[in-house]
TrEMBL record:
EC number: 3.2.1.21
Keyword rRNA-binding among record annotations: no
Name of protein: Beta-glucosidase A, beta-glucosidase
GO biological process, one term: carbohydrate metabolic process
Lineage start: Bacteria, Candidatus Adleribacteriota
Length: 141
């Protein structure tokens, strides 16, 4: 609730760590590596008409199906959060990449935990409420 007693309305943006952070080691990255070539062939064969592929060839490039560096949000989160704040949003839903937090079973990375704490601090400093899902679909290798 805000100061006037009205319920606060959250207007926000959302990301998935796997899709934006880059540099990950999880089971989905492994799936991408095994399936990227087939997905690119399938796009060429069925999904996209040739007149589109001629102008926008990314669907037939296997690299398009691998997250790789992604948007490098892991290193650029301060800039990304400032850009989101400039849009006037007051909420940001993001996932925590568990393969960074617990890279080996039972071994936790203090630097990864501190990184995500830094993300939360940056969000609050920019007037955004962080929302973190309890579980995403990726598992540690």
């Amino acid at each position: 609730m805000n100061e006037s007693g009205d319920k606060q309305f959250f207007w926000g943006v959302s990301t998935s760590a796997h899709q934006v952070e880059g540099g990950l080691s999880n089971d989905w990255r492994e799936w991408e590596a095994k399936n990227a070539d087939a997905l690119a062939r399938e796009a060429r064969r069925r999904v996209w008409p040739q007149y589109i592929l001629g102008r926008f060839p990314s669907p037939i490039d296997p690299e398009n199906y691998r997250s790789g560096r992604a948007a490098d949000h892991y290193n650029r989160f301060h800039e990304d959060i400032r850009l989101a704040a400039a849009l006037g949003v007051n909420a940001y839903r993001f996932s925590i990449e568990w393969s960074r937090v617990e890279p080996e079973e039972g071994k936790f990375s203090v630097s990864a935990i501190e990184h995500y704490r830094g993300v939360i601090r940056a969000l609050r400093e920019n007037g955004m409420e962080p929302f973190v899902p309890q579980k995403m679909i990726f598992s540690v290798l």
